[in-house]
Design a protein that fits this description.
alpha+beta, 2 helices, single chain, about 45% strand
Length: about 100
């Protein structure tokens, strides 16, 4: 597993960008590769109840496509964490 964790300045939010993989039974290649970017935002609803909102984006590849998927991550998806950071999150209320 490979990951980067950073706190977003002045918000109390965290951004976790990580890569998971599972090898084939013979260990010679990857059968699954998954990239996730998670944004954790603490909140307090109007009634004073506290919680954490998790917003995430996942990308996954299987079998023979995993190598090209990894290559494409290096070239084209470097801005995904910025997009997740800038996404306007909804207002949250905890219902009983």
């Amino acid at each position: 597993m490979s990951y980067q964790l950073r706190e977003l300045p002045g918000t109390g939010e965290f951004l976790l960008d990580f890569l998971l993989s599972q090898a084939t039974p013979d260990g010679k290649s990857q059968s699954i590769v998954e990239r996730n970017v998670y944004r954790y935002k603490p909140f307090t609803d109007p009634s004073g109840k506290k919680g954490i909102l998790l917003f995430g984006v996942s990308q996954r590849s299987y079998g023979a496509d995993t190598e090209s998927f990894l290559t494409s991550l290096k070239r084209t998806n470097v801005d995904l964490p910025a997009k997740v950071e800038q996404f306007k999150l909804p207002s949250i209320a905890i219902a009983r």
